[in-house]
Amino acid sequence: MASNYRTSSDQWKKRAAKVELNETQKQEIKEAFDLFDVDGSGTIDVKELKIAMRALGFEPKKEEIKKLIAEIDKEGIGTIGFEDFFAIMSVKMSEKDEKEEILKTFKLFDDDDTGSISLNNIKRVAKELGENLTDDELQEMLDEADRDGDGEINEEEFLRMMKKTTLY
């Protein structure tokens, strides 16, 4: 049983090792953890994970919390140590930063503030970047990302496409 616990915990730690947080972010994670580690034991109750994540600006869904607890607390002890909490929150913070950067890029395409990217938006950006692509090539790019078939790319579709193309 302990080896399963280690594996999931170690996977979070490996992912967290690739993340670069600034000192303020590290301090915020520590402070959120300390808020709930009232007895100074170095652990928090798994029931408090959602509240601790909210303290850091996340709105985790019930399913996400259940999954995290199942991964980290395999032995059913009912607590999460600081190292595991730090690893989870480091990864979550980097994902949040990544999402914000992607949405900034979305807004560069969506210069007419419609909430979606049209073929004309893509043409404009391609022209600004000096890319000589045909209308058919640009339409193909749009169609690739347009999951709901409305002829435009919304934020969700853009995020999905960008995450798919980002190498990790």
UniProtKB/TrEMBL annotation:
A GO BP term here is: microtubule cytoskeleton organization
| Pfam families assigned | EF-hand_7 (PF13499)
Molecular function (GO) terms listed?
calcium ion binding; G-protein beta/gamma-subunit complex binding; heterotrimeric G-protein binding
Q: Which Gene3D superfamilies match?
A: EF-hand (1.10.238.10)
- The residues covered by the EF-hand domain are 24-59, 60-95, 97-132, 133-168
Q: Which PROSITE patterns does the UniProt record give?
A: DEAD_ATP_HELICASE, EF_HAND_1, EF_HAND_2
One GO term describing the cellular component: centriole
Q: Which UniProt keywords apply?
A: Calcium, Metal-binding, Repeat
Keyword Calcium among UniProt keywords = yes
Q: Which family does it belong to?
A: Belongs to the centrin family.
What protein am I looking at? Centrin 4
Origin organism is Sus scrofa (Pig)
